[in-house]
Amino acid sequence: xxxxxxxxxxxxVYDLTRGMAAMMSQMLVGRHLEGxxxxxxxxxxxxxxxxxxxxxxxxxCGTVLGEPDRVVELGExxxxxxxxxxxxxxxxxxxxxxxxxxxxxxxxxNFTDEVSQFLCGKGIPKYILDxxxxxxxxxxxxxxxxxxxxxxxxxxxxxxxxxxNNSLRNYEPQEPRRERDVSPDLVxxxxxxxxxxxxxxxxxxxxxxxxxKLAKKDRKKKKKKQKERKIESEGSxxxxxxxxxxxxxxxxxPSSSRVSSGRCGGGGGGGGxxxxxxxxxxxxxxxASDGKRSxxxxxxxxxxxERKEREEKKKQREPPVVFKDAIDVRVEFDxxxxxxxxxxxxxxxxxxxxxxxxxxxxxxxxxxxxxFLNFVGRLLHDKSLKSEIRVRLLNVLAAAALKDDVILIxxxxxxxxxxxxxxxxxxxxxxxxxxxxxxxxxxxxxxLSSSEWLLYISEWQYxxxxxxxxxxxxxxxxxxxxxxxxxxxxxxxxxxxxLACKEKMTQNLNLRRILPPGCKSKVFDDVAVELTxxxxxxxxxxxxxxxxxxxxxxxxxxxxxSKQDVPQLIQMIGxxxxxxxxxxxxxxxxxxxxxxx
Length: 597
Description:
By secondary structure, this protein is of the alpha+beta class. The chain has 27 helices and 8 strands. The strands form 2 sheets. The protein has a 6-stranded antiparallel sheet with strand order 5-1-2-3-4-6. Strands 7-8 form a two-stranded antiparallel sheet. Helix 13 runs antiparallel to helix 16 (387-400) and helix 18 runs parallel beside helix 21 (469-481). The longest helix is centred in the middle third of the chain and has 52 residues, at 184-235. GO terms for molecular function: peptidase activity.
C-alpha cells in the first residue's frame, strides 16, 4: 500500500458487563460507571487487541463479544501496512507478550492507547483508561477475567509473538471499513418499535386517568349513601341533636378520642374529603323509601360482583408472599397518635382522624381527604420529626396496602411521588424505617392494582436522578436482600419473589428482545438482570430454606424473562444453583428447571 494513502483507524469499544455496570456500579463502588471497557484497534481491515493470550488479530467483530457497543473514530494513518505489521509483531514479542497481561495495570486498553499513539499521534479517550481499580477488585470484576481469556478462543485469527503466523507478512490489507447503508426495512422496524413504546406509555397514562375517574365516581356514590343515611336519621327524629348519627362514638378507641380532640369544629365530613362537598349538592334524593332501598340493593349487588371478579383474578395468579400478621394496626396507630401529639396543624389533625376512619372503622378510601398525601409527605420527609413517627406511619400503611381500595390513594400520588421519593432513599434510612418500608412494598403485592402500580415505568426526576416506580421497587428489593439483617433479608426475598411472579414481567418478550439497549420498554429485562446479580450475591451466604426457595423460584423466572443474559450471569459469577441441591424437594425441582435453560 502506498504511503500517501490514508487508512481509517477506529477504536472498537465493548462493555464487558453488557450494561450491568451502569445498573450496579453505584451499589458496588459508590459511583456510577457506564461500563467496564474492552477495546480493540481496527485498521487495515483487521481488528487488533491484547488479552491473556498476548496480541491477537481477527476480522472486525470476530471475537465472542460480537458487535462493539460503540465505535470511536481515532483518525487516519499514513503508515504503510508493512511498517505497522513489523511494529505490532515487535509488541507481541516484547511488552505485550502472551504472559504479560495484567487486568489492573497492563491490559487491552493500555495496548490500544499505545497503538493509537503510534498510528494517529493521540491516545484513546481518557474515560476508558480511568476504569477504577476498586471495581475490578470486587468479585464481579474478577469474574470478568474468564471472559477476557475467552476472546482468543473466539477470535479465529492470529497471534503475535512466540506463536506469530509469518503468513501475515503477505497479507494484503483491505479497504478502510465503511459504514453500511441503513436498510429501509430496519428504519421502518425501528420506527414501528418506537411507536409501540409511545403508545404503551400513553395507554398507561390513559389507564391511570380512567382509574382516577372511577375512584371519584366511587367516592360520589359513597357520599350519596352517607347523605341519604343522614337525611333518614334526621327525618326519623323531631329534633336534631349533635349526637344523632354518631352512635359509634361511644365505642371508639382511646386513639379516636385523642385524635378528635385536636379537630376544629365537630364536622367529620368537611371540605377536606377526596370528593368536593359541592358535588353532593347536585345529587337528587328521591322521597320514596322503596326507591332508596332499590338503589342500595343495586349498589350492593354491583359491589358484590366486583369483589367476586377481583377474587377470581387473585385465584388465577401466582400467590404473592405478604405479611398480614406482622403488625397490630391498632397498636401502631395508637403509637403514631402519641408521637405526633401536639405537633400537627388542624388540617393534619383532620387527616389523622381520616386515617383512623379508614383503618380502624373500616371505612373506604373515600374517607381520606384531598390533603391526606400532604400529611403523609410531611411525616415522611420532615427530618426534624422523630424516626419513630415514620416507622409507625409506614406500619399503618403496610396494613392499608392489604385493602382492596388502596390503589385510590396511590393514584393520587402520581404527580408528587411522595411515597416513592421517600423509598428511593432507602439506603439512608434507619434500620427500623427500612424494615417498615420493605413491609409496605411487600404487602402492596396483595392486590393486583397496587402491585401493577409498583411496576409503572413512567419516569421523573428526583435529586438529579431519573427514577420510576419499578426502579425504586427494585432498589428496595436489592437493598433489603443484601442487608445483613434477617428481617430485611426475609422481606427482600419476598419482594423479589413477587416481582418475578408478576405477569407484566413476561409480557411482550419477543418485541423486547429486538429493541436496542437503553430503550425504556426493556426496563423489565434490565430489572431481571439487576435482581439476578443480587440473588447470586445472596447465594454466597447460607440462607434459610424458605428464603432460598423464594430466591431460586425468582431465578428460574428470570431465566425465562432474559434467556441469554441471566444464564450467562449464573455461569460468569456463580455460585451454581446446584450447590444447594438437597436443601428440599421443591428447591431441587427449581434447580433442575434452571439447569435445563
